[in-house]
Amino acid sequence: MASSPTPTSLSTPLLSDSSITTTTTTTRGVANGHAYTHGDLSAAEDAASVCEADPFAFLSEDHPPRSRGPTPADPFRNNTPGWGDAYCWVRALLLVPVAAARLVLFGLAIAIGYAATWVALRGWTDSRERPREGAGPMPAWRRRLMWVTRISARCILFSFGYHWIKRKGKPAPRELAPIVVSNHVSYIDPIYFFYELFPTIVSSDSHDSIPFVGTIIRAMQVIYVDRFSPASRKSAVNEIKRKAAGNSFPRVLLFPEGTTTNGRFLISFQHGAFIPGYPVQPVVVCYPHVHFDQSWGNISLITLMFKMFTQFHNFMEVEYLPIVYPPEIKQENALHFAENTSYAMAHALNALPTSYSYADSMIASRAAEAGKANCSNYMVEMAWVKEVYGVTTSDAMELLEHFLAMNPDSDGRVKAQDFWALFGLDCSPLCKKIFHYFDFEKKESITFRQFVVGCAHIRKQPLFEGVCETAFEKCKVPGTSDISLAQLADALRSSMLPPADDGMLKLFETFDVDDDDKISKEDFVACLARFPFLIALFAGRINGEVYIEIV
What is the H or E stretch that residue 203 is in? Predict the structure, then answer.
């Protein structure tokens, strides 16, 4: 493939504030000999400047990214005090006999509900195992039998301390609002809606294999979805539309946040409930408390259940809001419909809408698995990052693995030395400039959010892809199709002093994506797509100039 033409804007000096380019004839002679005269060094020292330059100015005229600043919130944190609270210990000890009785009631309710569900499903060909797409509604007599399971669900709520539940408003007729959406705070939410509405729910396909739960949700004619599969999401939307259109099916219930939060914030809504274009009835659920936060956040299920069993009473409030209708303009349906519904729910909850999403909970969970403290510092508001920069969840999770390998401190921040150590590089003047590009706050360290936004901003530049191809053609020897270790080191000399042998080998391995001891064009482009900031290392070679760093 022919080399891409060098864009005009590539003539911008990469290190114009801390280095000097000699005349064309002299510069190229130095480049070929890899040696610098005393006069060159003196001139470089005289021209050096302490001002910081944008190391990616050669990609476009765009300015470095300036993050809007994260929302000071953690929507996934459970705010229950630790076990060191004296009141919690005294209450738990006093209620041990009550907790034992509640556990017995819980077990009986589960057993009776499961038995009734098994009978209701037995012999029904539409639910022999998992519901098939296009299956018809459950026959009326089987739905009536499911009332036994629904009463069992109310007994389960009673065993968890929900002796009474405050309800405001009422469900709209199914003919007016076939889809119900609710915020998601705890595993108690679906149990309540199962008892109250017996809806069809949209659930992760992994829930089918959970003992007891899988059988019961099959009786609800669940719509399974794999949130990471576009085909599965499209199929789920079609099923939602089909079941919402037929009055013989129950209401369709969705939790558009896609995961549980602490109820103080709303995270970004998925659009599955809104794409079909049917009116929806929002429902908001909250759990007023003083000592015990009942949200299923960063707390284990066993701990949450135990604390529920050892409460005198757990409060729960449910409010059915007015129906929200889809916008009249078809092109605006899903996005504006979801936003209008979110604002209505946030107003009713007195909660703050945010741009966090389920992906942020995955990021925080992965940081916790890696043993990091303050895991909420790793969240990036993925809904906003995806909308502005097109970063997918898989992209963010891959970057997170590399960021965790950079040895972040207790606040989730990485210093320049640790940042470049991952690639075998030292903190040369060029590397410092690149790092400062990410360091929006000028704190000499960066967060994962800054890392993601910075990488995405570079990758989004209009000249980026063409420059990557140009860099490959400039680095390899004419007539060859790969870049060797020696050629990579030679290319770096146009912009910086190459690292030591171990560091050079580590950088080479970073570019050698397929581990075949050579860097093909596919390897080179794939590496720069993953780490787009590394393109600045080749600016000197692309521009056909030599830069002398003051070290």
Answer: strand 200-204
